[in-house]
Amino acid sequence: MSSFAGRMKEYPTVSLDRFDRENLLSRAYFLSHCHKDHMKGLKGPILKRKLEFSRTVRLYCSFVTKELLLSNPKYAFWEEYIVPLELESPTQISLVDETSGEKEDLVVTLLTAGHCPGSVMFLFEGSQGNVLYTGDFRLAAGDASRIEHLHSGSRVKDIQSIYLDSTFYDPRFYKIPTREVCLNGILELVGNWISQSPYHVVWLNCKAAYGYEYLFTNLGEEFNTQIHVRSLAMFKKMPEILSYVTTDRRTQIHACRHPKDEEFFQGSRLPCGCTASDGTPLRIISIKPSTMWFGERMRKTNVIIKTGASSYRACFSFHSSYSELKDFLSYLRPVNIYPSVIPIGRTLTEVTQIPQKTAPPVPVEESLPLAVTDAQPVARNFVDCTESNDEEEDEDQQEEEENAEKGDTKLTKEETGAIKESERNKEPEKKDTEVPGSPNPPKWEDFFTTDTLTDSQNSLNSQLQSCCSVPSPAPSRLTGSQTPELFSDEGETPDNDENFSLTLSASLSNHSSQNLDSCLPDTLILQPEQGGREQGDKRPSTVAQEESNDQKELSESQVSSDYDIPCTPESKTPRPDELSQLYRKLASGEDVIRKRD
DNA sequence: GCGATCAGTT
DNA sequence: CACAACTGATCGC
Predict the structure, then answer these.
(1) In Å, how far are A261, A297, A301 from A529, measured between CA atoms?
(2) Distance A169 CA to B8 C1' (A)
(3) What is the mean pLDDT of chain A?
(4) A166 within 8 A of A351, measured Cβ to Cβ
(5) Is the CB of A313 under 7 A from strand B?
(6) In A363-505, which residue ranges form alpha helices assigned H by DSSP?
(7) Between residues A282 and A258, which one has the greater pLDDT?
(8) Fewest CB atoms less than 10 Å from the CB: which of A134, A205, A316, A505?
(9) To 10 degrees, the CA torsion angle through A434, A116, A126, A20?
């Protein structure tokens, strides 16, 4: 959850994702996406009053964010003060002090953030340098090199500061399977279930938040159906989402919510109460999208885990993993990094010291960003910008900066040179001709790249087009589930099927390298493990069964990183892959026993 | 009565 | 397991 206080050091007269307290004085507002923790104060009466008296104060966001925001009546008063901006279109904004007339110009560019529909990062360019505010984001390794406006000609722009979504800025969250891999695991699971009979239905236990829409559109496309949701109002101008969701309960895929939906599910009912009209009990499985992370050197990464007779967890993340963040930062190499989220179980001080103290030793070319530009070598500063320091920010920030500089693992000049070389080698390829999104076939990530609305258009149709395609079409599994008479509204209690089992593997392939710099497109890996190294895992199944004893060890390893293992290595017999890891560590003189946090 | 905040839950 | 929102208790205006 964001604890960003709302303002950036470089441009303190604007506020982002916070609209209360000191932010009430700001000359312009920016909303990165429509999640509540980024909208604090946004419906405040004081702010409303201020707008009514102001001629220049506006809220800048993407077109999709504007739609989502205004679909909630509580924010309707913003309508005349919102200036939606296109993605990738630098826009000059005048920041005016309405009492003194003092003025400052700032150029802002919206960049896709991949977090939820309409989510963007803001790139600010002005007298105080280039500053990137990421909001919440999930970009894959290598994505930064494909963002045109982070470059100037063939080189990366100098970035003074990044205000970073540091949700997973912790080596515990080293790796999170890519969206494609997670999506395909879910498609697999859903397909295998609903193809069995029209009475086999799936309940997607999603949180009440934007961000699952691409799941709905991909499922809808793949299975030629619609997903039952509570309301369509927010999507009324987004036909590409709208066409895959419905309030009609007669569908096999549900993402509906009810205050007591878990209880419903235990009672073998969907949250919407839907049952088959002919009295045949529905066979329901629940799939709960949740974040799963993996250690740096972990090979096996099941994206679906069975948690009960008819319950599954499916890997799903709104935020970049540690390695994705590292890739992002080491590519942009900002002078300052301001974490905007304190990862669970950590303090701010810990976060600012993670690169120095907590990060596992990594090869030089993978090392953390060094804020060094060719012109001026500068020590990287990992500094606080969060709420708690709002009032006494200067002193505290100084302290943090000093701490950061004192970091005992601060890289030497020689090391920085090495990094610079390796970074140069991965300069963005053919940037001049490569405009994000255009020459390539539509990728489903484009779903988040949603702003291309022209003034005359009244719908967001075009923005969402080419956004909802399935990355790699699999054979369609039509189920005849569209028969309207099949379902009725009367409540019943069907039995759950316990005999269902999957046969495919959704794990990352063994051949997938650990090289996170690779820009190769993710292959869709839904195959059995090829000659796996892990003796204990002979089954080709996608699904790790949490309850099953012989699988227990495996599933535990999936939700904690190998840097978080509480016991010493010799307390149990290591598996062959663990052994080889240990040998590697020993050979490199690395500590093999890690202290627990 | 409304809204903000916090702790707990999902 | 760690997203983000909802719920309910409490407090203040």
Answers:
(1) 36, 17, 11
(2) 26
(3) 69
(4) yes
(5) no
(6) 393-406, 413-425, 461-464
(7) A282
(8) A205
(9) 180
Give nearest nucleotide to A288 (CA–C1'): B10
Q: From the alpha carbon of A260, which nucleotide's C1' atom is closest?
A: B10
DSSP alpha helices (H): ranges in A304-360?
322-332, 348-353
pLDDT tens string A283-323: 999 999 999 999 888 877 789 999 888 899 999 999 999 99
Structure tokens at A509: 């392939």
Confidence of residue A282 (pLDDT cuts 50, 70, 90): confident
Contact by Cβ (8 Å): A519, A434: no
DSSP A252-299: SEE----TTHHHHHHTT--TT--EETTSPPPEEEEEEEE---B-TT--
Give dist(CA A304, CA A301) in Å, integer: 9
Lowest mean pLDDT among A31-35, A55-59, A319-323, A433-437: A433-437
Mean predicted confidence (pLDDT) in A61-74 = 93
Is strand C less than 7 A from the beta carbon of A45? no
What is the separation, in whole angstroms, between the first and last Cα of chain A? 21
- A444: nearest Cα among A420, A417, A415, A468: A468
For residue A257, report the phi and psi dihedrals to the nearest 5 degrees: -120, 155
Per-residue CB contacts under 7 A with strand B, chain A residues 196-255: 207
Question: CA of A44 and C1' of B1: distance in angstroms?
Answer: 17
- Count CB-CB contacts under 10 A for residue A265: 21
β-bridge mates for residue A91, sequence order = A108
Residue A23, token pair as written in the block: 């932010």
Q: Does at least one atom of strand C sit less than 7 Å from the CB of A318? A: yes
Contact of A341 with A167, CB cutoff 8 Å: yes
Q: Which of A181, A256, A267, A254 is nearest to A220 (CA)?
A: A254
Token pair of A556 as six digits: 């535990």
